[in-house]
Amino acid sequence: MRVLHACVVLAAAVLAAAVPAYALDVQGDVLGAACGTFTDPMSHWMLDEGAGNQAWDCGPNQFHGAILGAGTCNGVLCGAKQFGSSAYVSVPATGALPAAISNLQTGTISVWFNFSEVPSAKGIWPIIYIGDGVGGVGNCSLILEIGHFQPETKLYFTVLAGDRPILCFDSGSQLLTNTWYHFAAVVGSDFNTGYLNGQEMTTRHYNFGGPTTRYFLADVPNKSVFWIGRGFLWVFPNDQYFKGQIDDVRIYDRPLSSQDVGKYYAWATRQPRGDIDTDTHVGVIDLLYFVDSWQTVSSDALYNIHADFNGDNRVDLADLVILVMNFGL
Fold this sequence. Notes:
The protein is of the alpha+beta class. The protein has 2 domains: 2-30 and 275-326, no CATH class; 38-266, Jelly Rolls (Sandwich), CATH 2.60.120. Helices cover 15% and strands 29% of the residues. It has a 9-stranded antiparallel beta sheet, with no helix packed on it. Helix 1 (2-16) packs antiparallel against helix 5. It is globular and about 60 Å long. The relative contact order is 0.18.
């Protein structure tokens, strides 16, 4: 077993020699062309950066963001960002909010989050905020948040146009602190819905609008900022900041299906990463499966989605690094 492990490590080292050092962060993730793009999001912020102040967008548009005070921590998919008082990520790092995001009439916003405490009265933990960046009466935004006007831990998806919400639903039940959740907000041409941990939120509660309401980013007036971990609570003027961790933010220019969301959640929560045969151990059988799929893409007959550990629709060096890191676990 030690000889085999050494051979795997040696193979990874030889392949990695062709990759510039700046392409690897401290978590061992391969950035740039090897960033995960599960089912091809238009933008994808892994939030795995081990150093520096740039949040890399691995999608085709490369809307890189600025990391403002957020630290690095362990997440669901390797690294994540730690948020607290005044810490957030701004997209893009400079310039105006990209029209490709701002003008979306339908689509999906996907994010992992883990909040550390219950918000106070008239407080929220904003996860994603895309809006005018101005608190108080007349606030225009699309916001994903924990809490809403009282000490609670429901999850809310809200679209505000001026001084009134035009769409708002909540999880219908309280979420737990210090627990990782995945949420996907999905808006189609004649519907909206949400998925929590891979399952559609069939018991979600509508405060404004209904399940056949179509409101998304294009319906928010005066958009100028896109923040991760910072936002506003409707008519209250004070900045609010998320307390906890946020990981793997994705925006899709189409509404994902329930199968898409379920497949992503199942892929993201496999443990340990590298376990292709799902026996909870990364060993020789997984290596053999990996070799069979080496350098294949999703359109190839031999492509194995379970060997595509970073979800970029190909089995390549990035996946080999993950396999080596977890071999023997």
